[in-house]
Amino acid sequence: MILVLSQSSHELTTEEVMDWLEDLGLPCLRLNGEDLDADSSWSARVPGGDFEITLDGRTLKLAAGDIQAVWFRRWAHGRRDQPVELILDDSRERQEAQREISSHLDQEMARLSGYLFSQLHDAAWLSRPSITRLNKLEVLEEAARAGLEVPATLITTRKKHLEEFMRTHGGIITKSIGESRALHLGDYFHTMLTAEIGTDLIAQLPEDLFPSLFQEKLDKRYEIRAFYLAGELYSMAIFSQIDDQTRVDFRHYNNVKPNRVVPFKLPADIADRISRLMGALELETGSLDLVKTTDGRYVFLEVNPVGQFGMVSKPCNYHLEQRVAEILARKARHGNSPQPV
Q1: Is-contact 288 146, C-beta < 8 A?
Q2: Whole-angstrom Cα distance, residue 195 to residue 246?
Q3: Residues 322, 326, 327, 332, CA torsion sign
Q4: Parallel, antiparallel, or unpaired for β 195-197 and 208-216?
Q5: Residues of the chain under the 50 pLDDT cut
């Protein structure tokens, strides 16, 4: 059996991969991290690692020996929509206590998830949770060692250093050091995107800042999203510079007039360097962002080990959902040996 570990029940590409697995005659079981909250029921016997999980009235018995392959699509440690209620006199104390308890419960779920993963060590994995939480700064260092060009980057808490960086590079952008997050505030949904920083904004900043990341602003000809899968690259060019809304970050999608996208083949030397990088990071999968500059350079930005691939697969007719299923089938039958599908 193949176990699919996903984040939520709304991942269309995950469902399509499972359809292909069914077509290949391979049974699979899907477990969503967000389902493992207060509404689910767990039992795990230690030692042994046999799990019994009840979700929506359906009981799943998961024995480590029954799983031949695992696809770590992505994961969440469960969602807690209702905060823990405490009876305290001061509302600020209540809020702080609720945050502390919520953090503790998240840690408990993380430990339980870790135990579940550890019991599947004999299965062949496509992506492993232990190597999917990358440090963006370490990845930039590793990419440079692999021979890829990366943007000039500054992390600082000093306004004067930011001003010097601006004078050196002319234009700069800022983005999160770690993973971007989506925030729900009232009736609004806010996402963290890459943003350009101008001199007027810098002038308004205090002398001391929270540690923040800044990079040179690249003059883009177009952006490239590539999906790396088991040694192969599937790339797409995104003509984001035609639209002011998507010029800095194509993820600031224009749903009325979407960016034009086309299949794209990276130069062999760039593809080789990316393969070298992915090997150094021990990644079999990953969504990579690059830029082709107006002066002809290819600049690496970042890689997401569990990034989506449907946005590349569908418009470029790469059929990645089928390819992922075929690789999982090979792993289920032959383990991690390099035997053909």
Answers
A1: no
A2: 11
A3: positive
A4: unpaired
A5: 79-88, 340-341
pLDDT score recorded for residue 253: 59
Name the amino acid, one letter, at 77: H
What's the rounded Cα separation, in Å, for the pair 189 and 183?
6
For the CA atoms of the chain, what is the radius of gyration?
A: 22
pLDDT at 213: 92
User: d(Cα 216, Cα 40) in Å, to the nearest integer?
Assistant: 47
Structure tokens at 156: 């600082």
Could you say which DSSP state residue 237 is in? E
Distance CA 103, CA 185 (A): 19
pTM listed for this prediction: 0.84
Residue 130 per-residue DSSP state: G
Under a CB-based contact definition with an 8 Å cutoff, are residues 173 and 217 in contact? yes
Unique residue bearing structure tokens 């069914």: 22
From first CA to last CA, the distance across the chain in angstroms is 17
The pLDDT score that the predictor gives to residue 75 is 86
Dist. CA 239–CA 261, nearest whole Å: 6
At residue 269's C-alpha, the angle toward residues 265 and 272, to 5°, is 90
